[in-house]
Structure formats: structure tokens, C-alpha cells
Specification:
The complex is a heterodimer of chains A (about 170) and B (about 120). Chain A has about 170 residues and is mainly alpha-helical. Helices cover about 55% and strands about 10% of the residues of chain A. Chain A contains 5 helices and 3 strands, in the order H-H-H-E-H-E-E-H. In chain A, strands 1-3-2 form a 3-stranded antiparallel sheet, with helices on one face. In chain A, a hairpin with a 3-residue loop joins strand 2 and strand 3. In chain A, helix 1 runs antiparallel to helix 2 and helix 3 packs antiparallel against helix 5. The longest helix of chain A is centred in the middle third of the chain and has 27 residues. Chain A is elongated. The C terminus of chain A is likely disordered. The C terminus of chain B is likely disordered. Classes of the chains: A mainly alpha (about 170), B mainly alpha (about 120). The interface between A and B is large, with 36 and 41 residues.
Chain lengths: ~170, ~120
């Protein structure tokens, strides 16, 4: 129910932003009626598909995710400059590598955030998802620092599932 | 010079700066796609265009947006790019990997359990 109400609120805000009339004069009752109909239909359809949960409506970890995106933005800038330097050298000297990166995020959302973060950072692309990790293609040796991957993984886990309660408290993964 | 004029000039400066730097990254991505040796490495160069290039251009456009609705719409475009471009990149990479495209690994043999059994080398 909480997620349903959140989804409706988000949709209302989105619709008001994209096509928002803020008055009720003229033709606007019709436009606003169409907006209400489309929002109600969307919520009804998502309920019928039974996909209204914390993964499709991530309002709980929203703040943590935004904080994480801020940190990720800094990493992306650094990686972009590194790739730019490699590409602009007079001679192309890259050593592409395939590495396995262990992933122990607690939920599917955490795994998805981690894999997408790796791909979003230039120089590393998640090629395949395996049982307990990712197969990552890296443009050069300098991108395959295991400590960097570990930090990104820990941060994405905290961003999507909150702080770890106890060292043994691992849920579904 | 009034405060409004100063604000307008600051906005123009931010916009021009962000878009110029964004263009540098877009061009660098295009050059990288041309210069790098194989499919997987070229994908990394395309990632430069996807992330910093596109986002900086959107930041420059947001600084020029007249009203808040346009600014929020542009921010939504940026957010969608942020979320969908890694998905698309992963889809392309995964498709190539499954189709058997071998990455051109210069000095390094991957230690990978799935490859340990097969004797076919890289390249």
C-alpha cells in the first residue's frame, strides 16, 4: 500500500511537470481529466501485474541512491579523463583485460546497481553476470584495481539496502 | 551592471563552459571509436560519449532553460540517459560475448573457470 501511494504521488508529480496545467479554466479540465485517467490506469495496471514493490518504486533508498550517484559522478569524471588520456596518446598503448569481480550484494537491486555502475564508468564494462560475480572487460590495467571495485560494490550495497545489520545478516542474494 | 545582468552572464558562462567541455568529450569518444583496436575497446570509447559528454551538454542546456519545467524535463532526460546507457552497453557487450566474439587481450590470459576447460586460446 505504501508503495502504491508513493507510485501515485510520483506519477502525479511527473505528469504535472511534463504537461502541467496549474489552473482549472478553459480546456484544462479535459486535460487534467485525461491526466487523472492515465495515472489511475497506470497504477491499476502495475497492481494487476503485481510488480509494485521496493524494486519498482525505490522510494526507501532514494536518498541513499542520490548520495551514491554523487560519489559515482566523481568516479565517472576521473575514469573519463583516464580514457581521454589513453585515446589521445599518439600511440595507442592499451592492455585490455577480462577480470572477474566478486559481487556479494544482498539483493537483486544492489547487484543491478553495482553492475550498471561498473558499465557506466568508462574503461570498464560488465560483459557477463555469473553466480557470484561479474565478468568485466577493462580497457587497460589501470582500471582493474580490486580495491576500487570493492569500494564501489560496498557503496552500491549500502545505497540500495541500507547499512549492514550484522556481519552474518545476509538475506537473499 | 545590475544583479540580473550578472546572473545572466554567469548563466551564459556556465552554459558555454559545460557545453564546450562536453563537446571535447564527445569528440574524444568519436576519435576513440576510430582508433582503438577491437570491438570491446571501442565500446569503452563510446562510453565516454554516453556519460560525461551527454551529461555536460544537458547541464549546459539546463543553465539556458527559461522556466523550471523545461529545466526539470532536461534533468529527466539526463537521468534517463544515466540509467539506460549502461543497460544498452551491457546488452551489446553481452550479446558479443555470447556470440563468441573474443576480446583482443594483448598480454593477459583470463583466469576464468568457464574458460579453464576449453583449450581454444584467445585471439
Amino acid at each position: 500500500m505504501f508503495y502504491g501511494i508513493s507510485l501515485t504521488a510520483i506519477l502525479v508529480a511527473l505528469w504535472l511537470t511534463l504537461s502541467g496545467p496549474f489552473t482549472l479554466s478553459g480546456d484544462y479540465p479535459i486535460v487534467m481529466g485525461l491526466g487523472v485517467i492515465s495515472i489511475v490506469a497506470t497504477v491499476a495496471l502495475t497492481y494487476r501485474m503485481r510488480i509494485v514493490d521496493r524494486e519498482t518504486v525505490p522510494v526507501g533508498p532514494a536518498l541513499a541512491l542520490f548520495t551514491y550517484w554523487g560519489w559515482l559522478g566523481g568516479e565517472i569524471v576521473k575514469a573519463n579523463l583516464a580514457v581521454l588520456r589513453l585515446v589521445m596518446k599518439p600511440e595507442i598503448e592499451v592492455e585490455p583485460r577480462l577480470v572477474r569481480v566478486p559481487a556479494d550484494q544482498r539483493s537483486g537491486l544492489g547487484l543491478c546497481v553495482f553492475a550498471n555502475s561498473i558499465t557506466l564508468t568508462p574503461g570498464t564494462v560488465t560483459v557477463d553476470v555469473e553466480d557470484d560475480g561479474f565478468l568485466v572487460h577493462a580497457l587497460d590495467n589501470s582500471f582493474t584495481d580490486p580495491a576500487g571495485f570493492a569500494e564501489m560494490g560496498a557503496r552500491s550495497d549500502i545505497a540500495s539496502d541500507g547499512k549492514k545489520a550484522s556481519p552474518t545478516g545476509r538475506g537473499d542474494s | 551592471m545590475s544583479a540580473a545582468e550578472i546572473f545572466q552572464h554567469a548563466r551564459d558562462a556556465i552554459s558555454i563552459g559545460a557545453m564546450a567541455v562536453g563537446l571535447v568529450f564527445v569528440i574524444a569518444g568519436a576519435i576513440g571509436v576510430m582508433r582503438l583496436p577491437d570491438f570491446y575497446t571501442r565500446m569503452h570509447a563510446a562510453g565516454v560519449t554516453d556519460t560525461l559528454g551527454a551529461e555536460l551538454i544537458i547541464v549546459g542546456l539546463i543553465a539556458q532553460a527559461g522556466d523550471w519545467q523545461t529545466a526539470v524535463k532536461l534533468a529527466l532526460v539526463g537521468l534517463l540517459l544515466f540509467l539506460t546507457s549502461p543497460t544498452a552497453t551491457h546488452a551489446i557487450a553481452n550479446a558479443a560475448h555470447r556470440a563468441g566474439q573474443k576480446p583482443d587481450l594483448s598480454h593477459f590470459k583470463p583466469k576464468h573457470p568457464a574458460d579453464a576447460g576449453s583449450s581454444e586460446g584467445q585471439k
